[in-house]
Write a structure and sequence with these properties.
Blueprint lengths: L1 H13 L8 E2 L9 E6 L7 H16 L5 E7 L7 E6 L4 E2 L13 E4 L7 H15 L15 H4 E2 L4 E2 L5 E2 L16 H6 L7 H11 L19 E5 L8 E6 L2 H4 L2 E8 L3 E8 L14 E5 L6 E7 L5 E7 L5 E8 L12 E4 L8 E6 L11 E7 L5 E7 L4
Parallel strand pairs: 2-3, 2-4, 4-6
Antiparallel strand pairs: 1-9, 5-6, 7-8, 10-11, 11-12, 12-13, 14-15, 15-16, 16-17, 18-19, 19-20, 20-21
Helix pairs in contact: 2-3
Length: 392
């Protein structure tokens, strides 16, 4: 079976994919978030491959989680961690997760054979590092969510499954590839980005990256009590504002997440009224987004318990400055309607996806509230995609 797994890993680059989320091999998660990495061979002829692999891994698994990969020097006879060799063999990882710790040639990556294959060379180390972290192939997940044609290796007709633990719903965009018959196309197209569900599954195992933590979720925050979708930064994609009226002893707040078609809603910033309007309560009972105007400033409206409204004016160039307009209930600044579910095509496939706020939902062991995102299906139903709280 191990030999079959190695062959199938190689097939992900050699055979033609797109249909993925993460599955985890039971007991394979590393017990630490600091993982050493070394190179079996530091010949100068593979210098570009080593640089490319290191950059791609840091910009994906390390960028989106609490993981820190250290070392990146020549392996010694007793070196621990993930030992990588660059060579002419098909790419593969000899074991899943912590079982690869200290294994000689534990990961094998291909040499950069052609500029035309650059994206394969960039995505392959990200994919293989996923295995070294314990994650399985999406097309081989054990649940029934995988389409039959994606379970079968086309050339052999083998129906293949790995008995791993599903962390998310089936995700066609995963770096761990979702369709066995089209895997080469998956790895040869696009950037080596983790999908929204990849990030959710990764964080559920290895924790959030510090820059992805907008706040600490606490009981009673009511994160998700209100939602608003709109293009706040003027980039053509929908961003998300989320109200949390119970935050900080019912002072309340709103949280902004930038929308990304592939990587989902990415943490942006926390909004909490300041100055003369700081004394209000339950800000974020309702929220609304007014898109960027000619002044290159986005506007987010927050409703409070007393029916008043505050406006956060966000300067987009330079970014990060927020000015607050005083609370008012004048007609031109009406209290936003409270919305807890929104249907919109988030991934560009022409089908309506769904964003739902679950203000009493449990995340991280606390009833802080969460937001759930479901992908629209052709049959009109929605399937689980990913979910997140104040940290992602």
């Amino acid at each position: 079976m191990k030999r079959l797994q190695v062959i199938l890993v190689a097939a992900l680059v050699l055979a033609p994919g797109a249909l993925p989320a993460l599955t985890l091999t039971e007991g394979s998660a590393w017990p630490t978030t600091t993982i050493p990495v070394c190179w079996e061979d530091t010949q100068s002829r593979f210098l570009q491959e080593r640089r490319l692999a290191r950059k791609a891994i840091r910009a994906s698994w390390e960028q989106e989680s609490a993981l820190v990969f250290t070392g990146w020097r020549k392996c010694q006879p007793r070196s621990r961690g993930i030992r990588i060799r660059i060579g002419s063999q098909h790419p593969h990882t000899k074991a899943r997760g912590k079982a690869v710790d200290g294994v000689r040639d534990g990961m094998v990556l291909p040499a950069l054979w052609a500029l035309a294959a650059l994206s394969v060379n960039v995505k392959t180390p990200v994919h293989e590092m996923g295995h070294a972290l314990g994650f399985g192939h999406e097309f081989a997940r054990p649940d029934d969510a995988v389409p039959e044609q994606c379970r079968v290796i086309q050339r052999s007709g083998i129906r293949y499954a790995e008995h791993d633990l599903p962390l998310t719903g089936f995700d066609r965009d995963s770096i761990m590839v979702g369709c066995a018959g089209t895997a080469q196309r998956d790895l040869s197209l696009g950037l080596p980005l983790l999908s929204a569900a990849d990030i959710y599954g990764l964080v559920s195992v290895y924790g959030s990256a510090p820059h992805n933590i907008l706040d600490t979720g606490e009981d009673g925050d009511l994160f998700g009590a209100s939602l608003a979708l709109g293009d706040l930064d003027g980039d053509g994609g929908d961003d998300l504002a989320i109200g949390a009226p119970g935050k900080d002893g019912n002072r309340g707040a709103a949280y902004l997440f930038r929308g990304h078609r592939f990587q989902g809603f990415r943490p942006w910033r926390k909004l909490q009224p300041e100055g003369v309007i700081a004394g209000g309560t339950e800000w974020g009972r309702s929220v609304a987004i007014a898109g960027a105007g000619d002044d290159e400033k986005g506007r987010v409206l927050l409703g409070a318990a007393d029916g008043s409204t505050a406006v956060a004016v966000i300067s987009l160039k330079p970014e990060a400055r927020v000015d607050w307009l005083p609370a008012t209930a004048t007609p031109d600044r009406e209290l936003p309607e409270t919305v807890r579910a929104i249907d919109a095509d988030l991934d560009g496939d022409g089908l309506p996806d769904r964003v739902t706020g679950l203000a009493s939902g449990i995340i991280g062991g606390r009833t802080a509230g969460l937001v759930q995102v479901e992908r629209g299906m052709a049959n009109g139903v929605h399937s689980a995609w990913y979910r997140f709280g104040q940290a992602y």
